[in-house]
């Protein structure tokens, strides 16, 4: 995929640095990578146009905001052909923050963030159960998040 994108070493360095600190100014990043801030600006715009960079996100401590429950839900579908329909419905549930189509035991795997167990119960019982096409679910409650990081991106020739 990278060959089609025609990214060079500088593009990868910019991506890596911005993943570590999206608040760094283009001027400071340029100094760090020995190019001008204008070059960084042009490269970021190119990466956005190529859909490699999809915006910049604020990292928030959800526990500090009162979101105490993180859970993962394995979703069994009645038929795998129902994936698109069920995914569309799951996307309407704001507590679901990540959704993946998977191989293995589950057809889909979702990450859910809730303020408390009552909210989790509501989502599981009142929201998920009404979605046609879901055969059953299996819920895993996270006791602690031990790791949350980005992948290290490298040019193909490294």
Automatic annotation (TrEMBL):
UniProt keyword 4Fe-4S present: no
Gene Ontology BP terms: response to amino acid
InterPro entries: AsnC-type_HTH_dom (IPR000485), Dimeric_a/b-barrel (IPR011008), Tscrpt_reg_AsnC-like (IPR019888), Tscrpt_reg_AsnC/Lrp_C (IPR019887), WH-like_DNA-bd_sf (IPR036388), WH_DNA-bd_sf (IPR036390)
GO molecular function: sequence-specific DNA binding
Domain of life: Bacteria
Name of the protein described by the UniProt record: AsnC family transcriptional regulator
Species per Swiss-Prot/TrEMBL record: Sediminibacterium goheungense
UniProt KW keywords: DNA-binding, Transcription, Transcription regulation
Record flagged with keyword Mitochondrion: no
GO cellular component: cytosol
Start and end residues of each HTH asnC-type domain: 7-68
Pfam families, alphabetized: AsnC_trans_reg, HTH_AsnC-type
Signal sequence, renumbered to the chain: none
Coiled-coil positions: none
């Amino acid at each position: 995929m990278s060959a089609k994108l025609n990214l060079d070493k500088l593009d990868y360095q910019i991506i890596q640095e911005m993943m570590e600190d999206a608040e760094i100014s283009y001027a400071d990043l340029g100094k760090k990578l020995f190019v001008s801030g204008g070059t960084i600006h042009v490269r970021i715009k190119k990466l956005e146009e190529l859909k490699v960079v999809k915006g910049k996100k604020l990292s928030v401590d959800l526990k500090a905001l009162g979101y105490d429950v993180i859970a993962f839900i394995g979703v069994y579908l009645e038929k795998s052909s129902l994936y698109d329909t069920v995914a569309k419905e799951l996307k309407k549930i704001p507590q679901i923050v990540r959704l993946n189509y998977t191989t293995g035991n589950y057809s889909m795997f979702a990450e859910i963030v809730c303020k408390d167990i009552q909210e989790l119960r509501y989502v599981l019982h009142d929201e998920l159960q009404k979605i046609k096409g879901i055969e059953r679910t299996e819920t895993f409650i996270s006791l602690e998040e031990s790791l949350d990081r980005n992948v290290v991106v490298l040019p193909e020739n490294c």
